[in-house]
Amino acid sequence: MPTHQFQLPQPLPLENGVRLAHPEVAYQTWGQLNAARDNVVWVCHALTANADVADWWPGLVGPGRYFDPADWFIVCANVLGSCYGSTGPLTPNPITGRATFQEFPLLTIRDMVAAHEALRAELGLARVHTLIGGSLGGQQAVEWAVQQPQVFENLVLLATNARHSAWGIAFNEAQRLAIFADATFQQNSPAGGAAGLQAARAVALLSYRSYQAYDRTQTEPTDEPLTNFRAAAYQRYQGDKLAARFDAYSYVTLTRAMDSHHVGRGRGGVAAALSRVRARTLVIGITSDGLFPVTEQLLLARHVPGAMYAEMDSAYGHDGFLLEAAQITHFLERFHSLTYAH
Ligand SMILES: CC(=O)SCCNC(=O)CCNC(=O)[C@H](O)C(C)(C)COP(=O)(O)OP(=O)(O)OC[C@H]1O[C@@H](n2cnc3c(N)ncnc32)[C@H](O)[C@@H]1OP(=O)(O)O
Ligand SMILES: N[C@@H](CCO)C(=O)O
Protein backbone atom coordinates (compact mmCIF):
# COMPACT_ATOMS: atom_id res chain seq x y z
CA MET A 1 0.00 0.00 0.00
CA PRO A 2 1.24 3.54 -0.62
CA THR A 3 2.47 5.48 2.37
CA HIS A 4 0.59 8.75 2.89
CA GLN A 5 2.04 11.82 4.58
CA PHE A 6 -0.11 13.94 6.90
CA GLN A 7 1.22 17.27 8.12
CA LEU A 8 -0.47 18.44 11.30
CA PRO A 9 -2.11 21.83 10.75
CA GLN A 10 -0.64 23.23 13.99
CA PRO A 11 2.63 22.85 15.88
CA LEU A 12 2.30 19.94 18.30
CA PRO A 13 2.59 20.88 21.99
CA LEU A 14 4.74 18.18 23.56
CA GLU A 15 4.51 16.92 27.11
CA ASN A 16 7.82 18.62 28.03
CA GLY A 17 6.51 22.05 27.02
CA VAL A 18 8.26 22.32 23.63
CA ARG A 19 6.16 22.87 20.48
CA LEU A 20 7.15 20.64 17.56
CA ALA A 21 6.84 22.71 14.36
CA HIS A 22 5.10 21.16 11.32
CA PRO A 23 5.13 17.55 12.50
CA GLU A 24 4.32 14.90 9.92
CA VAL A 25 2.86 11.43 10.30
CA ALA A 26 3.37 8.67 7.71
CA TYR A 27 0.54 6.16 7.50
CA GLN A 28 -1.00 3.41 5.42
CA THR A 29 -4.54 2.09 5.15
CA TRP A 30 -6.08 -1.13 3.85
CA GLY A 31 -9.69 -1.83 2.88
CA GLN A 32 -12.61 0.57 2.73
CA LEU A 33 -14.52 2.48 5.37
CA ASN A 34 -18.08 1.11 5.30
CA ALA A 35 -21.22 3.28 5.15
CA ALA A 36 -21.78 3.02 8.92
CA ARG A 37 -18.12 3.95 9.50
CA ASP A 38 -17.94 1.24 12.15
CA ASN A 39 -15.27 -1.08 10.71
CA VAL A 40 -12.09 0.79 11.69
CA VAL A 41 -9.13 -1.18 13.06
CA TRP A 42 -6.17 0.91 14.22
CA VAL A 43 -2.87 -0.91 14.75
CA CYS A 44 -0.08 0.65 16.82
CA HIS A 45 3.36 -0.69 15.92
CA ALA A 46 6.28 -1.54 18.19
CA LEU A 47 9.79 -0.13 18.47
CA THR A 48 11.38 -0.64 15.05
CA ALA A 49 8.41 -1.37 12.80
CA ASN A 50 6.65 0.97 10.40
CA ALA A 51 3.23 1.78 8.96
CA ASP A 52 3.22 -1.33 6.75
CA VAL A 53 1.43 -3.64 9.17
CA ALA A 54 0.60 -6.15 6.42
CA ASP A 55 4.36 -6.61 6.02
CA TRP A 56 5.40 -6.99 9.67
CA TRP A 57 2.21 -8.74 10.94
CA PRO A 58 1.31 -10.88 7.91
CA GLY A 59 -0.29 -13.60 10.02
CA LEU A 60 -2.92 -11.19 11.33
CA VAL A 61 -3.45 -8.55 8.63
CA GLY A 62 -4.18 -9.41 5.00
CA PRO A 63 -6.55 -11.42 2.81
CA GLY A 64 -7.90 -14.44 4.73
CA ARG A 65 -6.40 -13.23 8.02
CA TYR A 66 -8.29 -12.13 11.14
CA PHE A 67 -8.07 -8.50 10.02
CA ASP A 68 -9.02 -8.98 6.39
CA PRO A 69 -9.13 -5.74 4.35
CA ALA A 70 -12.26 -7.14 2.67
CA ASP A 71 -14.06 -6.50 5.99
CA TRP A 72 -12.05 -3.85 7.82
CA PHE A 73 -10.66 -0.40 7.23
CA ILE A 74 -7.21 -0.84 8.76
CA VAL A 75 -4.97 2.08 9.68
CA CYS A 76 -1.36 1.91 10.82
CA ALA A 77 0.69 5.07 11.37
CA ASN A 78 4.40 5.39 11.95
CA VAL A 79 5.24 6.79 15.39
CA LEU A 80 6.66 10.26 15.88
CA GLY A 81 10.42 9.97 16.36
CA SER A 82 10.82 6.99 14.03
CA CYS A 83 12.83 6.94 10.80
CA TYR A 84 10.05 5.51 8.63
CA GLY A 85 8.43 8.73 7.44
CA SER A 86 7.04 10.46 10.52
CA THR A 87 8.98 13.43 11.91
CA GLY A 88 12.08 12.21 13.71
CA PRO A 89 15.49 13.41 14.86
CA LEU A 90 16.98 13.37 11.36
CA THR A 91 14.07 15.29 9.81
CA PRO A 92 15.35 18.77 8.91
CA ASN A 93 13.89 21.36 11.26
CA PRO A 94 11.59 23.45 9.00
CA ILE A 95 12.69 26.65 10.74
CA THR A 96 16.47 26.19 10.98
CA GLY A 97 16.95 23.69 8.15
CA ARG A 98 19.16 21.64 10.48
CA ALA A 99 18.61 18.01 11.44
CA THR A 100 20.37 17.32 14.69
CA PHE A 101 19.59 14.77 17.34
CA GLN A 102 20.84 17.23 19.96
CA GLU A 103 18.14 19.77 19.03
CA PHE A 104 15.33 17.24 18.66
CA PRO A 105 12.98 17.30 21.65
CA LEU A 106 12.34 14.54 24.13
CA LEU A 107 9.22 12.63 23.06
CA THR A 108 6.86 10.64 25.25
CA ILE A 109 4.25 8.00 24.50
CA ARG A 110 1.63 10.72 25.06
CA ASP A 111 3.24 12.82 22.30
CA MET A 112 3.07 9.86 19.91
CA VAL A 113 -0.59 9.42 20.77
CA ALA A 114 -1.27 13.15 20.28
CA ALA A 115 0.14 12.99 16.74
CA HIS A 116 -2.00 9.95 15.88
CA GLU A 117 -5.03 11.56 17.47
CA ALA A 118 -4.57 14.45 15.02
CA LEU A 119 -4.47 11.93 12.18
CA ARG A 120 -7.66 10.29 13.44
CA ALA A 121 -9.36 13.70 13.31
CA GLU A 122 -8.01 14.31 9.81
CA LEU A 123 -9.40 10.96 8.62
CA GLY A 124 -12.79 11.76 10.21
CA LEU A 125 -12.88 8.55 12.26
CA ALA A 126 -15.23 9.36 15.13
CA ARG A 127 -15.20 5.75 16.38
CA VAL A 128 -12.61 3.00 16.18
CA HIS A 129 -13.93 -0.56 16.36
CA THR A 130 -10.63 -2.08 17.51
CA LEU A 131 -7.41 -0.50 18.75
CA ILE A 132 -4.60 -3.04 18.97
CA GLY A 133 -0.90 -2.94 19.78
CA GLY A 134 1.95 -4.91 21.33
CA SER A 135 4.94 -3.78 23.38
CA LEU A 136 5.56 -0.07 22.59
CA GLY A 137 2.44 -0.27 20.40
CA GLY A 138 0.46 -1.50 23.38
CA GLN A 139 1.80 1.37 25.47
CA GLN A 140 0.38 3.81 22.90
CA ALA A 141 -2.90 1.90 22.70
CA VAL A 142 -3.55 1.87 26.44
CA GLU A 143 -2.54 5.53 26.78
CA TRP A 144 -4.89 6.46 23.93
CA ALA A 145 -7.77 4.47 25.41
CA VAL A 146 -7.27 6.29 28.72
CA GLN A 147 -7.18 9.69 27.00
CA GLN A 148 -10.14 9.15 24.63
CA PRO A 149 -12.34 6.52 26.26
CA GLN A 150 -15.36 7.37 24.10
CA VAL A 151 -13.58 6.60 20.82
CA PHE A 152 -12.58 2.95 21.15
CA GLU A 153 -15.05 0.10 21.18
CA ASN A 154 -12.49 -2.71 21.64
CA LEU A 155 -8.94 -2.61 22.91
CA VAL A 156 -6.39 -5.40 22.50
CA LEU A 157 -3.12 -5.11 24.42
CA LEU A 158 -0.32 -7.61 23.87
CA ALA A 159 2.92 -8.04 25.85
CA THR A 160 2.73 -4.52 27.23
CA ASN A 161 2.33 -2.57 30.45
CA ALA A 162 0.74 0.41 32.16
CA ARG A 163 4.05 1.91 33.22
CA HIS A 164 7.48 1.03 31.89
CA SER A 165 9.39 -0.99 34.45
CA ALA A 166 12.76 -0.32 36.04
CA TRP A 167 13.92 -3.52 34.31
CA GLY A 168 12.78 -2.25 30.91
CA ILE A 169 14.36 1.18 31.44
CA ALA A 170 17.61 -0.48 32.49
CA PHE A 171 17.66 -2.59 29.31
CA ASN A 172 17.00 0.53 27.23
CA GLU A 173 19.75 2.47 28.97
CA ALA A 174 22.24 -0.36 28.39
CA GLN A 175 21.39 -0.14 24.68
CA ARG A 176 21.72 3.65 24.61
CA LEU A 177 25.13 3.39 26.34
CA ALA A 178 26.29 1.16 23.48
CA ILE A 179 25.13 3.81 20.99
CA PHE A 180 26.71 6.73 22.87
CA ALA A 181 30.02 4.82 23.03
CA ASP A 182 30.16 4.97 19.22
CA ALA A 183 31.97 8.23 18.36
CA THR A 184 30.25 8.39 14.96
CA PHE A 185 26.96 9.08 16.76
CA GLN A 186 28.01 12.77 16.79
CA GLN A 187 27.75 12.90 12.97
CA ASN A 188 23.96 13.28 12.78
CA SER A 189 23.99 11.34 9.52
CA PRO A 190 21.86 8.25 8.78
CA ALA A 191 24.85 5.93 9.29
CA GLY A 192 26.06 7.71 12.46
CA GLY A 193 26.19 5.42 15.48
CA ALA A 194 25.67 2.31 13.35
CA ALA A 195 28.17 0.18 15.30
CA GLY A 196 26.54 1.28 18.54
CA LEU A 197 23.12 0.43 17.14
CA GLN A 198 24.34 -3.07 16.20
CA ALA A 199 25.47 -3.63 19.77
CA ALA A 200 22.21 -2.16 21.10
CA ARG A 201 20.12 -4.57 19.02
CA ALA A 202 22.22 -7.50 20.20
CA VAL A 203 21.52 -6.48 23.80
CA ALA A 204 17.84 -5.96 23.02
CA LEU A 205 17.52 -9.42 21.48
CA LEU A 206 18.44 -10.93 24.84
CA SER A 207 15.33 -9.30 26.26
CA TYR A 208 13.07 -10.22 23.30
CA ARG A 209 13.89 -13.95 23.31
CA SER A 210 14.50 -16.51 26.02
CA TYR A 211 17.04 -19.02 27.26
CA GLN A 212 14.94 -21.75 25.68
CA ALA A 213 14.81 -19.98 22.29
CA TYR A 214 18.58 -19.61 22.16
CA ASP A 215 19.05 -23.14 23.42
CA ARG A 216 16.75 -24.54 20.74
CA THR A 217 18.03 -22.55 17.75
CA GLN A 218 21.61 -21.55 18.53
CA THR A 219 23.22 -24.50 20.31
CA GLU A 220 26.14 -26.02 18.38
CA PRO A 221 25.26 -29.32 16.70
CA THR A 222 28.69 -30.72 17.61
CA ASP A 223 31.19 -30.02 20.39
CA GLU A 224 33.90 -28.83 17.98
CA PRO A 225 34.15 -24.99 17.99
CA LEU A 226 36.17 -23.10 20.55
CA THR A 227 35.23 -19.77 18.97
CA ASN A 228 32.85 -18.36 16.36
CA PHE A 229 29.87 -19.86 18.10
CA ARG A 230 26.50 -19.96 16.40
CA ALA A 231 24.88 -17.85 19.13
CA ALA A 232 27.59 -15.20 18.72
CA ALA A 233 27.07 -15.11 14.93
CA TYR A 234 23.33 -14.73 15.53
CA GLN A 235 23.91 -11.70 17.78
CA ARG A 236 26.14 -10.05 15.14
CA TYR A 237 23.71 -10.87 12.34
CA GLN A 238 20.73 -9.40 14.18
CA GLY A 239 22.73 -6.25 15.00
CA ASP A 240 23.76 -5.82 11.36
CA LYS A 241 20.22 -6.45 10.17
CA LEU A 242 18.77 -3.65 12.28
CA ALA A 243 21.60 -1.20 11.55
CA ALA A 244 20.93 -1.70 7.83
CA ARG A 245 17.31 -0.52 8.15
CA PHE A 246 17.11 1.79 11.18
CA ASP A 247 19.07 4.70 12.61
CA ALA A 248 20.63 5.23 16.01
CA TYR A 249 18.97 8.64 16.59
CA SER A 250 15.46 7.29 16.25
CA TYR A 251 16.45 4.32 18.37
CA VAL A 252 17.51 6.57 21.25
CA THR A 253 14.43 8.79 20.80
CA LEU A 254 11.98 5.87 20.80
CA THR A 255 13.55 3.99 23.70
CA ARG A 256 13.42 7.20 25.76
CA ALA A 257 9.74 7.59 24.86
CA MET A 258 9.19 3.99 26.00
CA ASP A 259 10.87 4.78 29.33
CA SER A 260 8.44 7.69 29.79
CA HIS A 261 5.38 5.47 29.58
CA HIS A 262 3.21 5.81 32.69
CA VAL A 263 -0.55 6.01 32.25
CA GLY A 264 -0.92 7.20 35.82
CA ARG A 265 1.34 10.26 35.59
CA GLY A 266 -0.66 13.28 36.71
CA ARG A 267 -3.83 11.15 36.89
CA GLY A 268 -3.71 9.87 40.44
CA GLY A 269 -1.85 6.67 39.63
CA VAL A 270 -2.13 3.67 37.34
CA ALA A 271 -5.31 2.19 38.79
CA ALA A 272 -7.21 5.48 38.56
CA ALA A 273 -6.05 6.03 34.97
CA LEU A 274 -6.94 2.52 33.81
CA SER A 275 -10.39 2.79 35.38
CA ARG A 276 -11.20 5.45 32.75
CA VAL A 277 -11.03 2.93 29.89
CA ARG A 278 -14.47 2.20 28.41
CA ALA A 279 -13.43 -0.17 25.61
CA ARG A 280 -14.10 -3.89 25.86
CA THR A 281 -10.56 -5.03 26.53
CA LEU A 282 -8.50 -8.13 25.91
CA VAL A 283 -5.04 -8.31 27.46
CA ILE A 284 -2.65 -10.99 26.19
CA GLY A 285 0.48 -12.05 28.07
CA ILE A 286 3.28 -14.39 27.02
CA THR A 287 4.54 -16.81 29.65
CA SER A 288 8.15 -16.66 28.40
CA ASP A 289 8.26 -12.83 28.15
CA GLY A 290 11.15 -11.69 30.33
CA LEU A 291 10.90 -8.03 29.30
CA PHE A 292 7.19 -7.44 29.90
CA PRO A 293 6.41 -10.30 32.32
CA VAL A 294 2.82 -11.48 32.63
CA THR A 295 2.48 -9.75 36.01
CA GLU A 296 2.33 -6.51 34.00
CA GLN A 297 -0.54 -7.72 31.80
CA LEU A 298 -2.36 -9.12 34.83
CA LEU A 299 -2.15 -5.66 36.39
CA LEU A 300 -3.66 -4.13 33.25
CA ALA A 301 -6.44 -6.68 33.23
CA ARG A 302 -7.13 -6.13 36.94
CA HIS A 303 -7.63 -2.38 36.61
CA VAL A 304 -9.27 -1.96 33.18
CA PRO A 305 -12.99 -2.41 33.88
CA GLY A 306 -14.25 -5.79 32.66
CA ALA A 307 -11.01 -6.70 30.90
CA MET A 308 -10.38 -10.27 29.79
CA TYR A 309 -6.97 -11.85 30.14
CA ALA A 310 -5.41 -14.56 27.98
CA GLU A 311 -1.98 -16.09 28.22
CA MET A 312 0.01 -17.78 25.51
CA ASP A 313 3.11 -19.91 25.44
CA SER A 314 5.75 -18.98 22.93
CA ALA A 315 9.22 -20.26 22.24
CA TYR A 316 10.13 -16.72 21.24
CA GLY A 317 9.65 -14.85 24.51
CA HIS A 318 8.57 -11.21 24.20
CA ASP A 319 8.74 -11.23 20.37
CA GLY A 320 6.01 -13.87 20.44
CA PHE A 321 3.50 -11.05 20.00
CA LEU A 322 4.91 -10.55 16.49
CA LEU A 323 5.24 -14.20 15.60
CA GLU A 324 2.44 -16.24 17.24
CA ALA A 325 -0.30 -15.26 14.79
CA ALA A 326 -2.26 -18.52 15.15
CA GLN A 327 -2.55 -18.21 18.94
CA ILE A 328 -3.40 -14.51 18.77
CA THR A 329 -6.07 -15.21 16.14
CA HIS A 330 -7.56 -17.87 18.41
CA PHE A 331 -7.75 -15.40 21.32
CA LEU A 332 -9.25 -12.69 19.11
CA GLU A 333 -11.93 -15.09 17.87
CA ARG A 334 -12.83 -16.05 21.43
CA PHE A 335 -12.86 -12.41 22.50
CA HIS A 336 -15.08 -11.49 19.57
CA SER A 337 -17.53 -14.33 20.24
CA LEU A 338 -17.73 -13.45 23.95
CA THR A 339 -18.18 -9.72 23.44
CA TYR A 340 -20.75 -10.15 20.66
CA ALA A 341 -22.50 -13.26 21.95
CA HIS A 342 -25.76 -11.45 22.71
C1 LIG B 1 11.89 -2.21 6.25
C2 LIG B 1 11.60 -3.22 7.29
O1 LIG B 1 11.97 -4.33 7.18
S1 LIG B 1 10.70 -2.72 8.62
C3 LIG B 1 9.81 -3.97 9.30
C4 LIG B 1 10.53 -5.20 9.80
N1 LIG B 1 10.66 -5.27 11.22
C5 LIG B 1 9.69 -5.03 12.05
O2 LIG B 1 8.58 -4.76 11.72
C6 LIG B 1 9.99 -5.07 13.48
C7 LIG B 1 9.33 -6.21 14.09
N2 LIG B 1 9.93 -7.47 13.66
C8 LIG B 1 10.92 -8.06 14.35
O3 LIG B 1 11.36 -7.61 15.37
C9 LIG B 1 11.48 -9.35 13.78
O4 LIG B 1 11.40 -9.30 12.38
C10 LIG B 1 10.73 -10.60 14.26
C11 LIG B 1 10.81 -10.67 15.77
C12 LIG B 1 9.29 -10.59 13.85
C13 LIG B 1 11.37 -11.83 13.65
O5 LIG B 1 12.76 -11.81 13.84
P1 LIG B 1 13.74 -12.59 12.84
O6 LIG B 1 15.06 -11.98 12.95
O7 LIG B 1 13.17 -12.65 11.47
O8 LIG B 1 13.69 -14.05 13.40
P2 LIG B 1 14.81 -14.96 14.04
O9 LIG B 1 15.21 -14.47 15.38
O10 LIG B 1 14.27 -16.34 13.97
O11 LIG B 1 16.09 -14.81 13.11
C14 LIG B 1 16.08 -15.27 11.82
C15 LIG B 1 17.21 -14.64 11.04
O12 LIG B 1 18.44 -14.83 11.73
C16 LIG B 1 19.33 -15.60 10.88
N3 LIG B 1 20.08 -16.48 11.75
C17 LIG B 1 19.60 -17.44 12.56
N4 LIG B 1 20.63 -18.03 13.22
C18 LIG B 1 21.75 -17.41 12.83
C19 LIG B 1 23.13 -17.57 13.17
N5 LIG B 1 23.53 -18.47 14.06
N6 LIG B 1 24.03 -16.76 12.57
C20 LIG B 1 23.64 -15.83 11.67
N7 LIG B 1 22.35 -15.64 11.30
C21 LIG B 1 21.42 -16.44 11.89
C22 LIG B 1 18.40 -16.37 9.96
O13 LIG B 1 19.06 -16.78 8.78
C23 LIG B 1 17.34 -15.30 9.66
O14 LIG B 1 17.85 -14.37 8.77
P3 LIG B 1 16.89 -13.46 7.84
O15 LIG B 1 16.18 -12.55 8.78
O16 LIG B 1 17.83 -12.73 6.95
O17 LIG B 1 15.98 -14.40 7.12
N1 LIG C 1 11.10 -6.75 18.06
C1 LIG C 1 10.38 -5.54 18.23
C2 LIG C 1 10.65 -4.90 19.56
C3 LIG C 1 10.07 -5.68 20.69
O1 LIG C 1 8.83 -5.16 21.05
C4 LIG C 1 10.78 -4.51 17.20
O2 LIG C 1 11.89 -4.58 16.68
O3 LIG C 1 9.97 -3.63 16.93
Can you describe this structure?
It is an enzyme of class 2 (transferase). GO terms for molecular function: homoserine O-acetyltransferase activity. It comes from Hymenobacter psychrophilus. It catalyses: L-homoserine + acetyl-CoA = O-acetyl-L-homoserine + CoA. The chain is α/β, with parallel strands linked by helices. It folds into 2 domains: 4-165 and 262-339, Rossmann fold (3-Layer(aba) Sandwich), CATH 3.40.50.1820; 168-257, Rna Polymerase Sigma Factor, Chain: A (Orthogonal Bundle). The protein is built from 12 helices and 10 strands. Strands 1-4-6-5-7-8-9-10 form an 8-stranded mixed β-sheet, sandwiched between helices. The protein has a two-stranded antiparallel ribbon with strand order 2-3. β2 (12-13) and β3 (19-20) form a beta hairpin. The protein is globular and about 65 Å long. L-homoserine is lined by residues 46-49, 135, 208, 318-319.
Give the helices and strands, then pairings.
Layout lengths: L3 E4 L4 E2 L5 E2 L3 E7 L9 E5 L8 H4 L16 E5 L31 H15 L4 E7 L1 H12 L4 E7 L7 H15 L13 H15 L2 H8 L11 H14 L4 H13 L9 H5 L5 E7 L7 H10 L4 E5 L7 H4 L1 H15 L3
Parallel strand pairs: 5-6, 5-7, 7-8, 8-9, 9-10
Antiparallel strand pairs: 1-4, 2-3, 4-6
The site of acetyl coenzyme *A (ACO) has 13 residues, from α7 and α11.
